[in-house]
Structures are given as structure tokens and as C-alpha cells.
Amino acid sequence: MNIPTGVLPAIRKMKDFERALETSNESIVFLETRLSQLKSLVDYTKRANKKALIHFDLIQGLKADEYGMEFLIREVKPDGILSTRGNVISMAKKHKLLAIQRIFLLDSIALEHNLKLIKRFQPDCVEVLPGLVPSMVEHIRTETNLPVIAGGLIKQEEEVNAAMNAGAVAVSTSNRALWSFK
């Protein structure tokens, strides 16, 4: 399973989708959309020779259960799933999709809790939010021995560099100005 690298365009609005297709980025992350639009978005993404990564928790109309995952796999055919939910990560791995555990680092208790979840559900990769804390990117990478994606609140090239220098394999951002950053 290929772990995404570099800058990952994260799509919240449809006007950003076309712009993301035109970039040289190999993957696109779908953060918010309706279930009825998802299949065509993934089809267009794949026609552009890009991988479609879906944030399962943010798709309107998709239920986080085995039937929701079955629908996603059979009808939508994404390349990977992002989720904060352990059961979704387990289902993604069971169906051989790239499974990215998204974690929010609010405080030391959240960090401890998330590390336990990661060890329990064994995702392929971890997305750390906010991605502005390079020392936490490095800590998560060291503690889990998994590739780390930094995301959330990243607005400048220096922040992308700081995350990558701390060991992040990728940076996800909805900031279009950073999508062409290498």
C-alpha cells in the first residue's frame, strides 16, 4: 500500500476540486461532500491518475458501519480512508484500503488516548492535527513507528517544511496556495 507523500490537497469546496485535479499531486483528500456526489468525484480523480482518499467521518449521508464501508468499497472505490474512529480504520484495513487514523492533539491526555487507539487499531498511517507542532509529529512517528501526515492550521511554506523536517511524510491542507509547493 502506497503511503501518500508531499502536499495533499484537501477538498472542502467543489471549486477547489478542479484546481486540485490540475496539480501534480498524486493524491486528493475529500474532507466534506455529500454521498450522492462522491462516486463521480472519485471517478474524475482516478481518470486524472490520482488517488482518492476519503475522510469517512465527514461524508454527509454515510454511516460509519459495515454497510457504509461495503457501499463505499463496491460503489465508490476509493484508494484510502481517513477517520478518527477505530472501527472505520479496522474495516478499511479488512478491505485492504489505505487506513489513515486522524488524531487531534488537544492536550497530553488526548495524546495518551490516541497512542492507545493507534496501537489497538494499527492504521497504515497517522494524520496529526494540528500539524503545526513539529515535536509532536516526531513524537507520534517515534512512538508508533508509522508514517505521519501533518494537517490542520498549516498556512505557510515554512510550516510545511517544519512538518516535513520533523519526519512527516506528507502535509494535508485545504490552502490552495500550498498545493504546488514541493
UniProtKB/TrEMBL annotation:
* Keyword Transcription tagged: yes
Kindly indicate whether the keyword Nucleotidyltransferase belongs to this entry: no
Single GO term (MF)? RNA binding
Top-rank taxon, per record: Bacteria
Alphabetically ordered keywords of this record: Glycerol metabolism, RNA-binding, Transcription, Transcription regulation
Which GO BP annotation is one of this protein's? positive regulation of DNA-templated transcription
- InterPro entries per record: Aldolase_TIM, GlpP
Checking PANTHER family in the record gives: GLYCEROL UPTAKE OPERON ANTITERMINATOR REGULATORY PROTEIN (PTHR35787)
Primary role: Regulates expression of the glpD operon. In the presence of glycerol 3-phosphate (G3P) causes antitermination of transcription of glpD at the inverted repeat of the leader region to enhance its transcription. Binds and stabilizes glpD leader mRNA.
Name assigned to this protein: Glycerol uptake operon antiterminator regulatory protein
Species the sequence originates in: Virgibacillus profundi
